[in-house]
Write a structure and sequence with these properties.
Number of helices: 10
Distance between the termini: 110 Å
Order of helices and strands: HHHHHHEHHHHE
Strand content: under 5%
């Protein structure tokens, strides 16, 4: 047989390049590439949630809702989760006074529908986990106290009701701390971290996303502005670490302690209608 009848094979370097191109195409269109797109879409959804809850402008909120609607289609494994986040953003945008109830209901609903337990098995004993929660919660409350005092000194909260008796005020502070901590932990450290785990995001990525998303969501918090965003971001990262290291209950306990400190200062410096 002549040379013209022989099968011409590519040389080894060329064959290697062809295999590399084929591999890249498979990864881009196959299961691995699809998983990467899902993770990227979920990362975007978390950041959009933070922006939406910050309520910057009506146009920005509308853009956030449109982007979340697109992600509902692009990220099928988390379609229900992203849709629930969009609903929470829309409700809070329309009725800001409804916070934190939309977050609480969305967090409860998503965790109730999730497969398996929200927490896994943790190394530290229950006593040590509780100790971590107490230490981190008290440390966070102490660290944020000067910032809250500065915020309420320049703009104290005003309530259109007569000042209630001290026992009632204490009960309101404790109740508000429990409800707010429940809402934020069930949503951010509960449902959102659980979705991170399902998609295989690393612990470092989860902590970074919690810092950015949770921080931006507190643009109008106490304290607010850039200082409030940074403070809430650091706190969100700490709660994410605690949730993954010691469980959702530990993060909730630490959050309650921190909120008690914040709300106590707000109540003590608030302006009430004279009785």
């Amino acid at each position: 047989m002549g040379d013209e009848g022989r099968l011409q094979l590519p040389d080894r370097p060329s064959a290697g390049r062809l295999r590399g191109v084929a591999h890249d195409r498979v990864m881009a269109g196959g299961p691995a590439g699809e998983a990467q797109r899902h993770r990227a879409g979920w990362v975007a959804a978390q950041l959009l949630l933070g922006v939406g809850l910050a309520r910057p402008t009506p146009l920005a909120i509308a853009a956030v809702l449109v982007c979340l609607a697109v992600l509902v289609v692009l990220v099928p494994p988390l379609r229900l989760t992203i849709a629930a986040l969009a609903i929470a953003v829309a409700v809070v945008a329309l009725v800001p006074q409804s916070w934190p109830w939309p977050a609480l209901l969305v967090g409860i609903g998503l965790l109730a529908g999730a497969r398996g337990r929200p927490d896994g098995q943790f190394g530290p004993s229950p006593g040590r986990r509780l100790l971590w929660a107490l230490c981190i919660g008290l440390l966070a409350a102490g660290a944020v106290t000067p910032l809250v005092l500065g915020a309420v000194d320049s703009a104290p909260s005003a309530f259109p009701v007569p000042q209630p008796p001290v026992p009632v005020l204490v009960a309101v502070v404790l109740g508000a701390a429990v409800v707010n901590a429940s809402a934020e932990e069930l949503l951010w450290r509960g449902a959102i971290v659980a979705a991170d785990r399902r998609l295989g995001l690393s612990s470092g990525t989860t902590i970074a996303l919690q810092a950015v998303g949770f921080g931006v969501a507190h643009l109008h918090g106490i304290p607010g502005g850039p200082v409030g965003v940074i403070a809430a971001g650091v706190f969100g990262a700490a709660m994410a670490w605690l949730r993954m290291r010691a469980g959702l209950g530990a993060a909730f306990a630490a959050h309650v302690l921190t909120d008690i400190g914040i709300f106590s200062i707000v109540a003590a410096t608030a302006v009430f209608v004279p009785g």
